[in-house]
């Protein structure tokens, strides 16, 4: 085969959707190539067809999504309608895939070493000793510590970043010519994301692999791409070199996506120092006793000596990596978990030490919006029933509650007809709007948003962030905003608290911390933000 020929050729590819959907095809007449040693980023929102193309290349499409036209060629071989046994031969040997969520992609009852070894057993004639040596070698290559312990560990015993490295090891153990990465860093913290992106780049250069990288994050695109393909509702609307697409985007959709990307720049926000304090947290602590099977007891300080306050009409952001303690603090504030020490005052009322019986009148004054709106809503109840449940539990009659729900849906830019529909009938962004409206039904003094936009596409994320800002200004409520994304925090936060290992390491006005971070951990978070140094063209 010609060394300059593309590794992957997708030519006029169309993939049908089941009848009755909002459109006939998942992708329509899409063409692009991936060369040896090249990284091509497929970019677009949910429903644009990115993952469907990846599944089509790997031969993983369900029968309900057939390829209707076009060709997929791997090193010149047409694999569009290849039989299953041929696709099995090609997977791992010539093409590998890294999935978005390693915890669901990995087998929970097999050790990580056995799962990598399974690839070698299926595709090679190596002896058990040779396979084990190759497993340990790839574990070292993806920079996992203590290879012997890693191969003996189960997925749940590893961090998210370590699990993703195991997925990369499985995909690359047989040196495939094509690597498909489907949103492999979306669920990761900014520092872990930076490590994984660096690792993919290093391994790609070392092995000369062609990479098809699927993402909705233009910061990631700026870090790693050679060329960019932009998809919208199944159509390829823009294709070109990274520099050209990111600096001089031609299509309106590309410009809209790029304009939706939050930046690390923020301006000083006016905070009313005379406004009443809604939430005051002093010396908050939460510890867990972790007892192993061997009887060893370990004390984990999930939160330690945490102090901050939020005034009416103000948004305080808590940022940090997974395990930093930010969500633990949010759950202590809402009393979903009991603090081990310290004070949490809502106005003049103490929450931290209140008995569970006395919490009932306080709960309506503080509401929380969680990360996953689908899990937050009962799939068997209509939106209207979900929204009126809280007020009716506190004595409001049904008809006034329904009228209030319709008003709040309009506030979050949802049609009142949504009242009669079920959660599965909405997009992720719409479901999150419904969760926000449901929280506002209780007329809270404090709204807690715990990673409320991290699972959303960049354009939907921008809309929900603007909605939070509008709600805060119109209703003059206090907000506690939990996020691991500094770019998101810069858009909505007046004050910032940076947490690491259960402690607040930096606290102050958001514009001061973004402009001149003082703590080494804060500086490391900023340094790890993808695309921070790239001059986008909007």
Explain what you see.
The protein folds into four domains: 1-94 and 177-255, Rossmann fold, CATH 3.40.50.300; 105-175, no CATH class; 277-365 and 444-528, P-loop containing nucleotide triphosphate hydrolases (Rossmann fold, 3-Layer(aba) Sandwich); 375-441, no CATH class. The mean pLDDT is 89. The longest helix is centred in the middle third of the chain and has 18 residues, at 190-207. The chain has 538 residues and is of the alpha/beta class. The protein is 37% helix and 25% strand. The relative contact order is 0.11. Helix 5 packs across helix 7 (160-172).
Helices and strands in order, then pairings?
Layout: E1 8-16, E2 25-34, E3 39-43, H1 50-58, E4 67-74, E5 77-78, H2 84-90, E6 95-98, H3 102-105, H4 112-123, H5 128-141, H6 147-152, H7 160-172, E7 178-182, H8 190-207, E8 210-215, H9 218-224, E9 227-232, E10 235-241, H10 242-247, H11 252-260, E11 277-291, E12 297-311, E13 315-319, H12 326-334, E14 341-346, E15 349-350, H13 360-363, E16 366-369, H14 373-376, H15 383-393, H16 398-411, H17 428-440, E17 446-450, H18 458-475, E18 478-483, H19 486-492, E19 495-500, E20 503-509, H20 510-515, H21 520-528
Parallel strand pairs: 3-8, 3-9, 6-7, 7-8, 13-18, 13-19, 16-17, 17-18
Antiparallel strand pairs: 1-2, 1-4, 4-5, 9-10, 11-12, 11-14, 14-15, 19-20
């Amino acid at each position: 085969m010609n060394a300059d020929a593309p590794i992957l050729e997708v030519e006029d590819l169309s993939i049908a959707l089941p009848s009755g959907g909002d459109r006939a095809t998942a992708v329509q007449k899409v063409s692009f190539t991936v060369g040896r040693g090249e990284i091509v980023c497929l970019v677009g929102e949910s429903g644009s067809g990115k993952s469907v193309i990846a599944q089509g290349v790997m031969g993983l499409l369900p029968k309900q999504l057939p390829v209707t036209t076009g060709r997929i060629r791997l090193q010149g071989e047409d694999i569009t309608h290849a039989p299953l046994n041929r696709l099995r031969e090609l997977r791992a040997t010539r093409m590998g895939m890294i999935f978005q969520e390693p915890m669901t992609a990995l087998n929970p009852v097999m050790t990580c070493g056995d799962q990598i070894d399974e690839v070698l057993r299926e595709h090679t004639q190596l002896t058990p000793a040779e396979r084990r040596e190759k497993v340990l070698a790839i574990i070292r290559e993806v920079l996992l510590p203590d290879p012997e312990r890693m191969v003996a560990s189960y997925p749940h015993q590893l961090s998210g970043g370590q699990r993703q490295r195991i997925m990369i090891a499985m995909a690359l153990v047989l040196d495939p010519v094509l690597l498909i990465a489907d949103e492999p860093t979306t669920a990761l913290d900014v520092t872990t994301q930076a490590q994984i992106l660096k690792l993919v780049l290093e391994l790609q250069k070392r092995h000369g692999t062609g990479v098809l990288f699927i993402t909705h994050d233009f910061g990631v695109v700026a870090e790693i791409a050679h060329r960019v393909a932009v998809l919208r509702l199944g159509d390829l609307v823009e294709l070109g070199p990274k520099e050209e697409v990111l600096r001089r985007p031609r299509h309106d959709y590309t410009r809209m996506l790029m304009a939706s990307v939050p930046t690390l720049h923020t301006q000083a926000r006016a905070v009313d120092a005379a406004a009443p304090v809604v939430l005051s947290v002093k010396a908050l602590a939460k510890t867990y006793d972790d007892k192993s099977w061997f009887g060893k007891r370990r004390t984990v300080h999930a939160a330690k000596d945490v102090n901050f306050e939020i005034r009416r009409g103000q948004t305080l952001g808590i940022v940090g990596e997974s395990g930093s303690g930010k969500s633990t603090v949010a759950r202590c504030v809402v009393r979903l978990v009991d603090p081990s020490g310290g004070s949490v005052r809502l106005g003049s009322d103490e929450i931290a030490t209140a008995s569970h019986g006395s919490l009932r009148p306080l709960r309506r004054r503080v509401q929380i919006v969680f990360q996953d709106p689908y899990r937050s809503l009962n799939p068997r109840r209509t939106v209207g029933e979900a929204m009126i449940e809280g007020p009716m539990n506190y004595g409001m009659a049904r008809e006034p509650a329904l009228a209030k729900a319709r008003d709040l849906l309009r506030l979050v830019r949802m049609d009142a007809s949504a009242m009669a529909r079920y959660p599965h009938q909405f997009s992720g962004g719409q479901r999150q709007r419904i969760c926000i409206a449901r929280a506002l039904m209780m007329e809270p003094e404090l709204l807690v948003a715990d990673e409320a936009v991290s699972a959303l596409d960049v354009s939907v994320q921008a809309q929900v962030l603007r909605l939070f800002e509008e709600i805060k200004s119109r209703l003059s409520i206090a907000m506690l905003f939990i996020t691991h994304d500094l770019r998101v925090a810069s858009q909505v936060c007046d004050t910032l608290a940076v947490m690491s290992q259960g402690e607040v390491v930096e606290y102050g006005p958001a514009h001061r911390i973004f402009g001149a971070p003082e703590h080494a951990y804060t500086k490391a978070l900023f340094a790890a933000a993808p695309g921070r140094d790239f001059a986008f063209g909007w």
